[in-house]
Amino acid sequence: MSTARAVQAPIQLFSYERWESRLPTLAREYRQNKPCPHILLKDFLDFDVALEIARQFPRASTDAWTQYKHANENKLGMAKRKLFPPMLGAVVDELNSPEFVAWISELTGIPSLIADPTLEGGGLHQSGRGGYLNVHTDFSMHHFHRKWHRRVNLILYLNPEWDEEWGGSIELWERDHGKMKRCTVKYPPLLNHALIFTTDERSLHGFPDPLTCPERESRKSLALYYYTIEPDGRVGEHSTDYFARPQDGWKKAAMIWLDKKAVDLYSRAKARFGFSDAFASKVLGFLSRKK
């Protein structure tokens, strides 16, 4: 019997060979999809890898989560890469690698994309029962890199047993003359489904209806954002911009508008003074417990 030690091949976190052959077709579909350039890729990672990172996903009870709880959203976020479990961290590193970023550039048709190793505004997200995120377009410039223009979002869903009746489908909306018009498409947050879309004034998205999942469940995802460097700096800069749907009514619409003005002030202060979300998270968490 041989005593030679078998050498285990490294785990392939993203199958470039598999997706490369489909890239021209996917790129064409990406450009043509409405209401904004986007694509949903099912079976994005190897199934075992996706299942493992879903298993490793940190529980909501840990203090490492930042609380985003205000009129326009109710969710938790974790952007510190050093806090991620091993496999989750490895996947993040792969999706921020030069090879993968080049692949994203080919898919989207946006040249010279760069990754954000700080995961500003991204990283791990989860929302429990009652959680929601109102329809919005994303902030356009990185808070701490004055010439970084946000161009592409990648959201990987990590929910092995999600029941679509609980809600949580991401909605892509279109608008006409500045007003919300209709929801064009919905994608449920199912395990190993990745939504990739161009981040601009057309990319209105969110899951605005509160989740009805059981208390033990949460809607989990991994979000990565990709940028280009703009020589002229913060051209067309704006903060996250929230919108009321036609069915929301004037009271809710007023709350959405007032809250987004507060978010805009906070974002400008954050960019100017360089503070993190930790303090705001503590304040929001305190107010939430007082309710």
Q: Can you put this structure into words, describing what you see?
A:
- Helix 3 (47-56) packs across helix 4 (86-95).
- A hairpin with a 2-residue loop joins strand 2 (66-70) and strand 3.
- This protein has helices at residues 16-20, 23-32, 47-56, 86-95, 98-108, 249-273, 278-290, and strands spanning 38-41, 66-70, 73-78, 114-115, 123-127, 132-137, 148-157, 170-176, 179-187, 194-198, 204-207, 219-229, 241-242.
- Strands 1, 2, 3, 4, 5, 6, 7, 8, 9, 10, 11, 12 and 13 form a 13-stranded antiparallel sheet that branches.
- The chain has one domain (23-286): Jelly Rolls.
- The chain is of the alpha+beta class and 291 residues long.
- It is built from 7 helices and 13 strands.
Q: How would the global form be characterised?
A: globular
Poorly predicted ranges:
1-9, 283-291
Number of helices: 7
Major sheet description: 13 strands, antiparallel
Mean pLDDT: 89
Identify the CATH homologous superfamily.
q2cbj1_9rhob like domain
Sheet/helix structural class: alpha+beta
Classify the oligomer: single chain
CATH architecture: Sandwich
H-E string:
HHEHEEHHEEEEEEEEEEHH
How many β-strand stretches?
A: 13
Could you name the CATH topology?
A: Jelly Rolls
Q: What's the level 1 CATH class?
A: Mainly Beta
* Helix fraction by DSSP (H/I, runs of at least 4): 25-40%
Strand content: 25-35%
**Rg result:** 19 Å
How many distinct domains?
A: 1
C-alpha termini separation = 68 Å
Care to give the gist of this entry?
The protein has seven helices and 13 strands. It is an alpha+beta fold and 291 residues long.
